[in-house]
Amino acid sequence: MSTWATVLLGSLVAFALKFLGYVVAERHLAHPRVARATGLLPVALLAGLVAVQAFLAPDGTPAPDSRAAAVAVALVALALRAPFLLVVVLGAATAATLRAFGWP
Amino acid sequence: MSDTDPAPGGPAPTAANDPRAVAATRRAAVSVGVATGAYGVSFGALGVASGLDVLQTCALSALMFTGGSQFALVGILGAGGSGASAVAAASLLGVRNGFYGLQVSRLLDVHGLRRVAAAHLTIDESTAVAVGQSTTGLSRIGFWWTGLSVFVLWNLTTLGGALLGNALGDPRTYGLDAAAAAAFCALLWPRLRSREALTVALAAVALVVVVAPHVPAGVPILVAALAAVVTGLVPHGPRRPGGAGGGAA
To answer: In chain B, positions 183-202, which contact chain A (CB-CB < 8 Å)?
Structure first.
């Protein structure tokens, strides 16, 4: 799939999901177990993405490098209630600094 | 403000017509837009760092317009995942917007083109502001003002971030690949309020690390998603009295 196809297909599905909420009868989705599963879905996806971005090399093998240190710093910043942009900047700065000193 | 206060003991004005309540709602909406727009910069920079061009990065902000899914899509493409797995992960993250739609459609009562526009603007922020208002009228103002402020600023800052990212060159030098991981942490953090959520998050990390060496890039994320769905659908069984590993939870 080309990058443009990925961008457009992803966007189409994203809109369809939003629109579905406006046209589907609520009783089809109101089951508590469905709601619980939907609530946990973003948690699992985002945590999985952290793992991929922080701990894995492109071939999927574990590669704890500067990115893992960046995640540690980001988590500390979040615990101290830092805003989103600061967390991201601190993460990038951590990795950039470590790499400047020769870390992978 | 110089508005006259309602006479003490007199009938309170309906909040939807109270200009102070309306102004407060608009201020809240615009400040949410500004705060969200600020991290459009990081999305723009990450988009081009992941191999998309400036136009593709901006197209995602305009057309997909749901931050978590956008970060997921470019993150998976940047990590070498297939387009199909990137679309699948982005779509699973977008499922929650459908549930937001259920909630806000009752408040908005929109049809035709306005319903299409409302659906496109249905995201975490617009829903949160809309459902947090005391009256239906204020909810509508909150929804549209938040949705439109975020939309305008998110797209402008995405463009700025993408141009900046392009100008910087090798993203690794500036730690932009680590910025993606930090961004996912920041998106995840507010969702870790319950012990169940924390357990699911840790299980997802473990699953991804175990599964990743054996499957194509992008697939581990979907395995983690499946685990969440299974956890959510399994009924809460009756607690075993004095069972092994019996935590207080």
So the answer is: 183-189, 191-192, 196-197, 200-202
